[in-house]
């Protein structure tokens, strides 16, 4: 432990010994805070961006390597490409917990409202994206349902920033290899690009690994009166999944680290998405239309449950996001209507008998047709030269039309009283939600700003929470989850001729009500109350033209605010929610000159409890990563990444369930080498 702290202390001392990116970060254009292109200085909330160049340097094998650089975010990696998300929250699990996060590409949700999936970020081509923007905290007015704890929005690349032609070949441990390509052309006003990534990973653990292909087609047209950006995206994943290893601190046991208790586990997933972004001006107003369609299907073995049923689920959707922005004197108004229509389905089947209450055969087979309609308005009133008032309001109506394709009632034999699986009868459920926000944006100077916001987020129950019932629960009488947040932040930049420092610090307090969970009787209920308090800090210090130091850290407590029935006979009010580390930090020291680049990254994850009673615990970990790149000639370059530089034993994710400690093992020191060619 001491040598890791010593190395990081050296980084801090080295950085502090120099004088105060030469680029003005406050001028960075972002889109996630609102639906309009805004300079970061104008955004009245926290917002972090990992840009296209930084993503290329990280060259992520998993999206967690990107989001580690954003305060308040921890995407816990499972095996292969699987993950669970923490965003101003604990790592949330359960059938619909993923609905607390709005995961999007170009502002369009990756999955339909009501059909979230915990692993949905693996559908996106992160490696070749135009950037990742993260908005922490409720964003119901802008995004509607699911924007409870925050938004992760991946941006498609701009045609101008893509190379004419490029290929890259990458090799790593365990038969890992990855290929990527980009090709583009233009014809008059029309610009086209095709790009993609194929990955093969033999897997660190026995009988594991995955193959994945991601391909994108981009078309852009810029006209004096309008602009159009069209995108088609396809992703395919074939994964042999390794399960948890069990036993206290088993991730430190060399004899267990590569053991796969579930060699039969798998996950197959395919997604197709297509959308257009149409922008034009008319009568002094700016219009934005985003029609889209999405298709997804997935099959996997529930290796994390002792009876190991298989699940198939999917969805097909049509929808459109829209906005109209106009200026009336000192008031800027953005308004629009979002619509979505989705057909989703789910099947669960158990191949082998387990018990009378968990029978062999079909557990569930249902379809759900959902529609949502959501008008909204967002206002910015410039009170004077330094102070702006911001307010917004959204209404959303959701309808679930459910059809059970099997017999109604228990999935077990008629003489079984405590059947695990219950199939409700056909029904229609509707939910109506309002969301509001109110904020102030104050300019201390041309480059120093204070922002504050009172905001609200919500999510309607997910289809699995409503219709995948257990233990004789005939109907899930669930309410929508609600989150109220108060945030205060300070953002600014000091800049001289060759040096600059950008900072963003925010404090927040959030309270969630009607939190949906599964009680000790395995019934879906919405009685939970939780509290979330924290501080987040980002620093980007370019102290010479070649040297840069970045920091992203957060400290937070996520606690139970009542005593929900998730533990029997134990009062857990005030306890930390399980899988909620209080401290998370990332720091990088970077040197770059011409096309040469070297980066040393330090990442720290605090200890966290593994159960609501706070009796089981993981001690956390710290990692060092080294990355470097160099040109070989005018058209060729070589780069490498040495991850887990000190070869630490750690768990990507720790868990406590069915009376056992369970871990997804972090991989040992790993070297990845990439050869790139471009025109």
UniProtKB/TrEMBL annotation:
Listed SUPFAM superfamilies: Porins
Signal peptide: 1-21
Gene3D superfamilies in the record: TonB-dependent receptor, beta-barrel domain, TonB-dependent receptor, plug domain
Cell compartments where the protein resides: Cell outer membrane
One family name in Pfam for this protein: TonB_dep_Rec_b-barrel
Domain of life (superkingdom): Bacteria
Main location: membrane
Motif, TonB box: chain positions: 28-34
GO BP term, example: iron ion transport
Membrane topology field: Multi-pass membrane protein
Any one GO cellular component localisation term in the record: cell outer membrane
Protein family membership: Belongs to the TonB-dependent receptor family.
Protein name: TonB-dependent receptor
Organism: Planctobacterium marinum
High-level lineage: Bacteria, Pseudomonadati, Pseudomonadota, Gammaproteobacteria, Alteromonadales
């Amino acid at each position: 432990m001491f040598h890791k702290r010593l190395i990081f202390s050296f980084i801090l001392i080295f950085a502090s010994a120099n004088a105060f990116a030469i680029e003005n970060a406050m001028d960075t254009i972002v889109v996630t805070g609102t639906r309009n292109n805004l300079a970061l200085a104008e955004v009245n909330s926290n917002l972090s961006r990992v840009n296209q160049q930084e993503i290329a340097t990280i060259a992520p094998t998993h999206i967690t390597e990107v989001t580690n650089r954003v305060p308040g975010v921890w995407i816990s990696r499972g095996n292969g490409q699987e993950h669970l998300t923490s965003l101003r929250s604990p790592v949330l699990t359960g059938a619909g917990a993923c609905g607390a996060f709005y995961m999007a590409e170009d502002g369009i949700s990756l999955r339909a409202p009501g059909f979230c999936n915990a692993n949905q970020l693996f559908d996106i081509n992160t490696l070749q994206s135009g950037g990742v923007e993260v908005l922490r905290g409720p964003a119901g007015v802008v995004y509607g349902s699911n924007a409870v704890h925050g938004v992760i929005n991946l941006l498609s690349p701009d045609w101008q920033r893509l190379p004419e032609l490029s290929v890259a070949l990458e090799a790593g441990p365990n038969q890992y290899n990855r290929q990527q390509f980009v090709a583009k052309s233009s014809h008059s006003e029309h610009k086209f690009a095709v790009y993609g990534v194929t990955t093969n990973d033999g897997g660190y653990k026995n009988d594991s690994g995955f193959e994945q292909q991601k391909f994108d087609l981009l078309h852009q047209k810029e006209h004096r009166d309008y602009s159009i950006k069209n995108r088609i995206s396809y992703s395919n994943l074939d994964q042999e999944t390794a399960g948890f290893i069990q036993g206290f601190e088993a991730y430190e046991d060399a004899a267990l680290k590569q053991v796969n208790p579930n060699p039969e586990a798998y996950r197959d997933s395919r997604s197709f998405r297509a959308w257009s972004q149409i922008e034009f001006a008319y009568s002094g107003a700016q219009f934005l239309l985003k029609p889209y369609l999405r298709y997804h299907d997935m099959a996997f073995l529930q290796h994390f449950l002792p009876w190991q049923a298989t699940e198939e689920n999917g969805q097909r959707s049509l929808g459109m996001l829209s906005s109209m922005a106009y200026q009336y004197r000192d008031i800027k108004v953005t308004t629009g209507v979002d619509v979505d229509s989705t057909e989703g389905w789910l099947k669960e089947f158990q191949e082998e008998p387990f018990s009378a209450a968990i029978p062999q055969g079909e557990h569930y087979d249902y379809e759900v047709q959902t529609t949502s309609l959501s008008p909204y308005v967002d206002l910015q009133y410039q009170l004077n030269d330094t102070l702006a008032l911001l307010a917004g309001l959204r209404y959303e109506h959701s309808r679930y039309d459910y059809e059970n394709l099997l017999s109604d009632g228990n999935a077990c034999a008629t003489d079984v009283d405590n059947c695990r699986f219950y199939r409700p009868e056909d029904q229609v459920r509707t939910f109506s939600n309002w969301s509001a926000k109110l904020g102030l944006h104050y300019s201390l100077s041309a480059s120093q700003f204070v922002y504050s916001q009172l905001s609200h987020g919500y999510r309607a129950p997910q289809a699995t929470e409503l219709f995948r019932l257990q233990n004789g629960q005939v109907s899930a009488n669930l309410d929508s989850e609600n989150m109220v947040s108060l945030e205060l932040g300070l953002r600014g930049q000091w800049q001289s001729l060759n040096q600059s420092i950008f900072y963003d610090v925010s404090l927040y307090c959030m309270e969630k009500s009607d939190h949906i969970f599964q009680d000790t009787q395995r019934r879906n209920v919405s009685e939970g109350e939780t509290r979330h308090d924290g501080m987040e800090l980002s620093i980007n210090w370019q102290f010479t033209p070649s040297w840069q130091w970045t920091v992203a850290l957060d400290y937070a407590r996520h606690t139970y605010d009542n005593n929900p029935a998730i533990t029997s006979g134990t009062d857990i009010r005030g306890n930390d929610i399980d899988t909620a580390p209080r401290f998370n930090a990332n720091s990088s020291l970077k040197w770059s000159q011409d096309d040469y680049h070297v980066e040393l990254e330090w990442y720290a994850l605090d200890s966290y409890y593994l159960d609501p009673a706070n009796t089981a615990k993981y001690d956390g970990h710290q990692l060092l990563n080294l990355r470097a790149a160099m040109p070989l000639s005018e058209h060729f370059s070589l780069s490498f990444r040495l991850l887990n530089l000190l070869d630490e034993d750690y768990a990507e994710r720790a868990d406590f369930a069915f009376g056992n400690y369970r871990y997804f093992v972090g991989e040992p020191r790993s070297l990845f080498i990439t050869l790139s060619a471009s025109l």
